[in-house]
Amino acid sequence: MKKPLIYTLMTGTLVIAMLLALAIGAVHIPLPILIELLLSKTGITKPAAGSQFETILFVVRMPRVVLSLLVGAALGISGAAVQAIFRNPLAEPGLLGISAGASLAAVFVIVLQASFFTVLGGIFGYYVIAIGALTGATLTAFLIYQLSSTNGRPQIATMLLMGIAVNALCTAVTGLITANAEESELRNITFWMLGSLSGATWELIYAIFPFVMASLILLPLQGQKLNAFVLGERQAEQLGVKTKSVKRTVIMLSTMAVGACVAVSGIVGFVGLIVPHLVRLMGGVNNRFVLPASAILGATTLCLADLLARIVTAPIEQPIGVITALIGSPVFIFILLRDKNKISS
Amino acid sequence: MLEVKEICYEVNGRKIIKNVSLFAKRGQMLAIVGANGAGKSTLLSLLNAENKPSSGVVTLDGRSMSDFDPLELAQKRATLAQSHHVNLAFSVEEIVMMGRYPHEKQQAREQDQRIVSETLRICGLKDFGERSYLQLSGGEQQRVHLARVLAQIWDQPEAVLFLDEPVAGLDMRYQQQTLAIAKALCKKGMMVIAVLHDLNLVADYADRVLMLKDGRRWKYGTPIEVLNTLDIYHVFDVETEIKINPKTLSPLVLTKPIKINHSELN
């Protein structure tokens, strides 16, 4: 398939997913009214008379859909970039320590909050968790980066193993805190570890927007250099690629974007791992295509996954991380089986 | 001109290259020969600025290699590595096009496309452009990388080409073809420095030979000066007989088989 066609199809699917997610929920918004409301908001048509749907659309549903798009795009594009620098299709942003560090910090804050911050309460408590998680993500990513560097050059093979080790350590401490947490805290912790977009507000979106946009704009610029990485770092250097600075840029941008997302949505697994694989199946392995396409497909995936999370057992919500893993793992197994047959034939 | 002044290279306290000096001119092919572990590839990595010598200096046209910006250097020199591990299904054309990355700002895409198809053709990969790299045989994959490094310097008349065992894994035809291309590039005014094992290929194609033993320069000169029974015996511990090819007047190295008594194998 030609690239423009693939982009058109992907963008079309994204728009359909968005409209579906905006329309479906506890209260269904009929499509004509939905489109009318959207057009009037953007000033294309005259504002319609205030309808009952307006509040639901703009205050409740839209922030959630926008958040799912941002988180999905960030996870998708970071996954693709991280796989490229690690030259390993099994790499994902979590390997940089982002998820494990964020969880540890978030769980710590949740437990601490129960004892110290109760006074602060409500929405402020939510921000404390988010800030804690972002700090945790950045610290672990920085720690792994530093531990894996010799003379300031990150050694990618070491980093892979260091990531596994530091992740295991963080998970162990998280488990220790969880095991000793109280009933009410446990519910909070579980909710966070399995991911949820239910806390979406416009304020949260403004908060993570710059981090996500930075990665969406700057990572695709590295596409060509990341292609050269497939030859190995030494060969890439022979082609004039400053591998050290590329690695630093990718790791920094991914940590910022995914860290910010994890902070507001909890751990959403599997998207960063699988979306780039699907994209390569559709349109080839060139990173100039894989990076932007992973952002689009990641956004679509998370938008639909969140829709499912909201409606499968409505009015009770399911954690989005569970939905992505439930759909993602069979897809991944399918890809692996397909590749296995290709290799043996 | 590439000038090497008394370079040494040390890793973890072990000296791999000891006090090597030489110079190589454009228009000539320099072959580096020596036994396994003599430091040939390491020396090559010092000459192409992949590694920095622990002491001594390598200069290209009077400028120290370490003074070049990586991109500027990439426009002047290309290196064919000994082995490659590509694990994604890039198309052959995409891989060869990577050779044009250092030049992409200077030139139109059509020029790059033209160079890529020319190098594919000369490497016998004319109809391979759309194929997946992963589905090629080992020898074909190697030719893809040769096409890539050729594309990198194709339109740079002053370029330096480094080849690390470029013919290992290739069939007879492409062993000759690879070195013939290198030789033709020299005729165009480029410089080629190649690590080679087959002394007869060296005799046929190289203008100068550097013989390494234990990281030291053992001998340097024309093939006819360097390739003689005594030096080959000292460096490789193999007995040979040298004939002169009456047509080309280049030396012909005939190896005497080694005998191992079967009782030694128990």
UniProtKB/TrEMBL annotation, chain A:
Belongs to the binding-protein-dependent transport system permease family. FecCD subfamily. It comes from Mucilaginibacter gynuensis. The keyword Translocase does not apply. The lineage of its organism: Bacteria, Pseudomonadati, Bacteroidota, Sphingobacteriia, Sphingobacteriales. The chain crosses the membrane at residues 7-31, 65-86, 95-117, 123-145, 157-179, 199-219, 250-277, 289-308, 320-337. It is found in: Cell membrane. It is a multi-pass membrane protein. InterPro entries: ABC_BtuC-like, ABC_transptr_permease_BtuC. Pfam families: FecCD. This is Iron ABC transporter permease. Its main location: membrane.
UniProtKB/TrEMBL annotation, chain B:
The keyword Cytoplasm does not apply. It comes from the Bacteria. Keywords: ATP-binding, Nucleotide-binding, Translocase, Transport. Residues 2-239 form the ABC transporter domain. The keyword Transport applies. SUPFAM superfamilies: P-loop containing nucleoside triphosphate hydrolases (SSF52540). GO terms for molecular function: ATP binding. CDD domains: ABC_Iron-Siderophores_B12_Hemin. SMART domains: AAA (SM00382). Part of the ABC transporter complex HmuTUV involved in hemin import. Responsible for energy coupling to the transport system. This is Heme ABC transporter ATP-binding protein. It comes from Mucilaginibacter gynuensis.
